[in-house]
Input
Amino acid sequence: MAYTITKLCMNCKDISCTQVCPVDCIYEYTGDDPSIPKNMLLIDPDECISCNACVPECPWEAIFPNDEVPAIFSADIELNAKIVAQPRIVPIRPEGTKNPTPEEVQSNKKEKGYS
Ligand code: SF4
Ligand code: SF4
Output
């Protein structure tokens, strides 16, 4: 079982997750397929070792083990799998990035229909 980044990540700029993944399997898509988003990161399920390190690190609470992905984000499991063997990079966290406030986290969940 792998982990999935849900659409709660969309437009995230903090990229804390990639800094803690021991196998560097959290990617930003760099190709041209419009069905694979570039404004969220995706976990390669073939490389993820399900260590859980990224979950507490994500300030937007966007990452779940596949068997705990909320129903509203269930399609994101397949979406993450699309990153396998695609052009991609492991992005680095920009310096000085601030974490969201609890209010911003709740507001993002509400906006994505998960609250
Ligand atoms: S830390 Fe969370 S919200 Fe930010 S890029 Fe990673 S998965 Fe997305
Ligand atoms: S669960 Fe571990 S291996 Fe999988 S993406 Fe998160 S940090 Fe990386």
